[in-house]
Design a protein that fits this description.
about 550 residues, two-stranded antiparallel ribbon, 16 helices, 14 strands, globular, disordered N terminus
């Protein structure tokens, strides 16, 4: 065992106790070890025949078990309903615009019959296209951008198919109808998926719609999986037990009877040799395997789970690297993870810069009256300039002047030393107080709704910042950075970012650094769009805004 395991027995039960699948109380001991021939060791000396017999016995014992994930089927049906409704609305909109005489077109169709047929057939065809492109597979639902990418790909392929069929059959389908129906259906389908994901995440925070996960492994690898599941309830993992990759005592000084301990509050319910018993006892639907398990044991585990409908996930030792950077590359029958370098230059960076400047400039023009009103309010309610200028550190360690609406009195920096003892951030790199006396009355309102950040759009326009990125640090903070934390400076700081939508000032320093580094490692334009969308709701919730 490792130091992360607690030093008490669960419920005062004796050694080798598993939890009851119904009550959660201790139900009994692990199945006693079967006598083995002299000189043999499990999984080693018996050769292929002993391994095959052990796997066959375990598979036979799990033959009657089937993982039940009923909520997943209901969620997929909800998404199908959303997609169908999105397409119905889109084709209805296209039909009304084309034939409702709201817009005058150069030519009128000979007959509206082809449009009626398409309006009736397109919604079921839309759902079928989504299904063929695996947009309803559970592994893509609930997190990440792959679900949305598959929706867009499905729409593009169906659009191409309709165009080809129309050309081949010489069907008279107006381009205006297609140009309205398909983009509208795509946008509405993506919006429906966003709504569906929001519903799913809300239910997961309430403890519903979760996968019952059994972690197989030991030590820090198993503890990492448990921590990640406990840290983010929207991931959908409810860890119901830990299965040791081998018996205690075979790989450490721990005694076998210590298997009644728990790991970060999760009970240890067996070893890989009794995995079938642990799955049945905990009603697990997913098995997550830590990377230290050897190939032979892993193969036996897979054989054991055949036909049980239990999902098998094999963790890698690499964390916070996701998305298109990872691919599977088979080499001599061994599946290896291929990790691409993070894209810090190139075409996508240029596209990001253009997008940032265009959006920031447009927003500034549209909200110019609001900028003027807020600036006047700041000037009239406290002495000093409307804009607060501060030196921050940008990409590559370059210093730049960041703009904000002034939310504090002009002597705020001089008064900071007197308030150091009230700093709510124990690590000391940042200074945060919920009721900071240096904040003006208007400043509290500006911070509450994040309006003090709006002038940073000037920094986005001049290229010193981006719309999405890590938090812009002070030079004094950078001077105390550890070596790894300097990776935050490999990209431009952002007006918003993962830290903004994950709690802002409520985050601990280590967690904010982890989120910033995750963005640097995995950034993409799709991720930027998702962060910008979620920022709107984070501002409305006012979480961590003080």
């Amino acid at each position: 065992m490792t130091e992360t395991m607690s030093g008490h027995r669960r419920g005062g039960a004796g050694p080798n106790v598993v939890a009851s699948p119904r009550s959660g109380a201790p139900a009994g001991a692990y199945p006693p070890a079967q006598p083995r021939p002299a000189g043999s060791q499990p999984g080693l000396s018996g050769g292929r025949h002993s391994v095959g017999r052990a796997s066959a016995v375990a598979a036979a014992e799990t033959a009657g078990y089937r993982a039940q994930v009923t909520w997943e089927r209901r969620y997929v049906r909800l998404l199908i309903l959303f997609d169908a409704a999105a397409c119905v609305l889109a084709v209805a909109l296209a039909f009304v615009v084309r034939f409702g005489h709201f817009v005058r077109f150069d030519s009128e169709p000979v007959s509206i019959q082809p449009y009626i047929v398409m309006t009736a057939l397109l919604p079921p065809a839309w759902v079928v296209a989504m299904s063929l492109n695996r947009a309803y597979e559970s592994r893509f639902l609930g997190g990440g951008s792959e679900e949305f990418r598959r929706v867009v790909n499905s729409a593009a392929r169906l659009t191409a198919a309709v165009a080809i069929v129309s050309y081949a059959t010489k069907a008279e389908i107006a381009r205006s109808y297609v140009l309205i129906a398909f983009p509208a259906a795509t946008v509405l389908s993506v919006a429906g998926r966003v709504v569906g994901r929001g519903i799913l995440h809300r239910m997961r925070r309430a403890g519903r719609c979760l996968h019952r996960v059994l972690v197989v492994g030991a030590g820090e690898s198993a503890a990492t999986l448990v921590r990640l599941a406990q840290r983010d309830p929207t991931s959908g993992w409810a860890v119901v037990g830990v299965v040791l990759d081998r018996s205690p005592g075979r790989h450490s000084h721990d005694r076998p009877e210590r298997s009644g301990f728990d790991l970060l509050g999760v009970p240890i319910v067996g070893t890989s040799e009794t995995l079938h018993t642990a799955i049945t006892a905990t009603h697990a639907t997913t098995v997550a395997i830590c990377p230290q398990m050897d190939g032979e044991t892993l193969r036996r585990v897979l054989w054991t789970l055949e036909g049980s409908d239990v999902d098998v996930l094999v963790s890698s030792a690499l964390t916070d690297v996701t998305g298109p950077r990872i691919s599977i590359r088979p080499v001599a029958g061994l599946p290896l993870l291929h990790i691409e370098e993070p894209e810090l230059t190139g075409t996508r960076r240029v596209m990001k810069g253009v997008f940032d400047r265009v959006v920031a400039g447009t927003v500034m023009l549209l909200f110019l009256p609001l900028f003027v009103a807020l600036g006047v309010a700041v000037r009239l309610t406290s002495r000093g300039p409307a804009l607060f200028r501060q030196v921050r550190v940008g990409r590559g360690g370059e210093h730049f002047t960041m703009f904000k609406f002034r939310s504090m009195y002009v002597d705020a920096e001089a008064r900071k030393a007197d308030l150091e003892s009230l700093n709510e951030r124990g690590e000391g790199l940042l200074f945060k107080m919920r009721d900071d006396p240096r904040i003006t009355r208007v400043g509290k309102f500006l911070r509450k709704w994040s309006l003090d950040e709006l002038p940073q759009l000037l920094n986005v326009v001049n290229g010193s910042m981006s719309l999405v990125g890590p938090r812009p640090p002070l030079p004094s903070e950078v001077a105390r950075y550890e070596v790894d934390v300097h990776r935050r400076l490999m990209v431009k700081p952002g007006l918003t970012g993962l830290w903004q939508i994950s709690g802002r000032s409520d985050l601990e320093w280590d967690e904010s650094v982890r989120l910033d580094l995750r963005y640097v490692e995995n950034w993409s334009l799709a991720m930027d769009f998702v962060i910008l969308w979620r920022t709107v709701f984070a501002v409305l919730r006012r979480e961590g805004a003080y």
